[in-house]
Design brief:
Helix content is about 45%, strand content about 20%. By secondary structure, the protein is an alpha+beta fold. The chain has 3 domains: about 35 residues, no CATH class; about 45 residues, no CATH class; about 70 residues, no CATH class.
Length: about 180
């Protein structure tokens, strides 16, 4: 009987200490949660935390305030690439505040930003050229299909090659005619 009292008392002391530990853990003060500002490509911030728990945030939404933009364009001139190649380099600095930027021109004075007319002309020329190229490829497909083993595959390649070449040629011709 004596041992049962000692056992019950020991278990009681262990449970009491465990309860005190749990209560101490629940009352423990949590550190201050800081909600950081959103950070992106053009933002920066610094946080100063004081010993009393207060903090200040210095936040810049557009930092750096001046951005650099360099554009390199390498393109072929003329129909079928006969006019040679030209490289256009445009360098500018701007402020990202949402205001429209002035239109840029290349060394020949042509606007770099493509107008809606030029985009429509090139798209229409590519579509017409793709159709013509596919019909030319399809007209030679029966003669290619006679090649043993790979004829059926080569005929499909001929049609697809005709489409791609017709699209490139049609787009170039349409932009040259439109003067873009």
């Amino acid at each position: 009987m004596k041992y049962i009292k000692w056992f019950a008392g020991s278990v009681g002391v262990i449970i009491a200490v465990a309860h005190i530990g749990v209560i101490g853990h629940l009352i423990k003060k949590e550190p201050i949660q800081i909600n950081y500002p959103p950070a992106g490509d053009y933002t920066s911030y610094s946080i100063t935390v004081n010993p009393d728990g207060s903090y200040t945030i210095d936040y810049k939404g557009h930092d750096p305030t001046v951005l650099d933009n360099k554009t390199y364009t390498d393109q072929s001139n003329g129909v079928f690439g006969i006019g040679g190649r030209s490289t256009t380099t445009v360098e500018r600095q701007y402020i990202p505040n949402g205001t429209p930027q002035p239109q840029e021109v290349d060394s020949e004075g042509k606007p770099i930003a493509r107008s809606e007319e030029c985009i429509k002309a090139e798209g229409g020329g590519e579509n017409a050229g793709r159709l013509v190229g596919a019909s030319i490829g399809a007209s030679i497909a029966p003669s290619i299909a006679g090649i043993p083993y790979i004829g059926w595959l080569a005929a499909g390649w001929a049609v697809m090659l005709g489409q791609d070449m017709g699209s490139n040629i049609g787009g170039n011709v349409a932009t040259q005619i439109k003067g873009c």
